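Step 1: inspect the first sequence and its tokens.
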Amino acid sequence: MTTPPSAHTDFVIERRFAVPPGAVFQAWADPQARRLWSDCHGECGSEQRFDFRPMGHETHRVVHADGRTQTIERVYFDIVVDRRIVFGYDIRLDARPLSVSLVTVEFFAAGRGARMVYTEQLAYLDGHEDRARRLQGTQEGLDRLVLLLSPQERAS
């Protein structure tokens, strides 16, 4: 039996914020803030290790209701405070590698607020492919980030 080849894709998502770039960057850098907007599997119970620094490692492990374990391992390659984050991550399901990604997140001043550009380049492994789902999940997380940083949310 031959192993299917890897498949490659990418996507870019932009979001605008009513807060300055430093506030958006901080929502990525602070582990408690990150959990509020980025964890799409909170209902399944998760384990996290967070080390936000160049060459720092992050682990996010979720046990799904059906007993399968999903593990995301992340390595930060480049962090420029308030400007840029570059990281790579892989996703495994029950130790089976599904994908490997390189992500660049950039923060720009935009009037009185910020514009964030999220670029992800993916390699899907061994026949796995879920681009539409991955894009949707990433968009939903970034939408939660916009809500978290909106002036009305922060005032409550």
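Step 2: inspect the second sequence and its tokens, then contrast the two.
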Amino acid sequence: MSPSPVPQPRAATVRGALEAELSSAPETGLTAKELSARVGISEKDVAGHLEHLEKSLRAGGAALEVIPSECLACGFVFKDRKRLTRPGSCPECRSTRIEPPAFRIR
């Protein structure tokens, strides 16, 4: 197991740091776990900050793009899901092996 990256001290706000990370996100986006490690907040707090950031981005003419979760067992894609958290189980096969959603700014 590789060591977790040590977060840098923040000079900006949490949402400002999230926006900076998402602006430079790769085409595949960043998951809540990756964002929490890069910004230095808990993974559970990421979704709440992203909801507020989404509103700010919309007001500024940008958008938060959500790359939907996908079931690793059957391939079901959660394309209509509005919540920014990882689903608990697949509605098709009931598997809990689900790829978390990823995010980026477009």
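Step 3: confirm your contrast with the notes below.
Strands lie at 30-31, 64-67, 70-71, 98-99, 102-105. The first strand starts at residue 30 and ends at 31.
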